[in-house]
Design a protein that fits this description.
Number of strands: 10
Largest sheet: 5 strands, antiparallel
Helix content: 10-25%
Number of helices: 3
CATH topology: Jelly Rolls
CATH class: Mainly Beta
Strand order of the largest sheet: 1-2-9-4-7
Structural class: alpha+beta
Oligomer: single chain
């Protein structure tokens, strides 16, 4: 009897885990992505004012796979920061200027046009900038995620509290 109970319990746990990560059907054209409603969601982002995210799948604040769309306005600079999880990203629209290192360095930026992919290794600092046009980036990782600025003075949350 106990053996059947344990097997049934394990089966229910496995089914629950599979259901929790079920991928919904979704199709979005670039224009539909660009027309996504603006909100103040910052989960998984740099926290810079004007930057926001739209959660496409999962919950970046919880354990599990997630995908977000990152919306970055024109003329935005994001200082060096890291995230605890490994992330992969694809530039959906706009020209994204992206670099790795502990301090923002314009000479280290690589211009990534739409269709470009890049990684954000967990714990490694990176920085970015937009020029005259806004940028949309799709970012996927395995949460929970966070944002840690290399220099606390660059953290937008710290500036809000002062």
């Amino acid at each position: 009897m106990l053996r059947r109970f344990v097997i049934a319990a394990l089966f229910l746990v496995a089914v629950s885990a599979a259901i929790a990560q079920s991928l919904p059907e979704m199709r979005m054209t670039p224009s539909e992505i660009g027309a996504s409603p603006l909100d103040s969601n910052q989960i998984g982002s740099s926290g810079v004012p004007g930057v926001h995210t739209k959660v496409i799948f999962g919950d970046p604040s919880q354990v599990g796979f997630y995908t977000i769309l990152l919306f970055v306005p024109a003329h935005t600079t994001i200082q060096a920061h890291s995230h605890r999880d490994n992330r992969m990203a694809t530039v959906v629209s706009g020209e994204w200027h992206f670099g790795y290192g502990n301090h923002f360095d314009a000479t280290s930026l690589k211009t990534l046009p739409p269709g470009s992919v890049y990684s954000e290794p967990g714990g490694d600092n990176h920085f970015a900038r937009t020029d005259a046009e806004p940028v949309i980036v799709e970012v996927s990782g395995y949460g929970p995620t966070d944002t840690r600025y290399f220099e606390a003075k660059n953290d937008p949350k710290m500036r809000e509290n002062n």
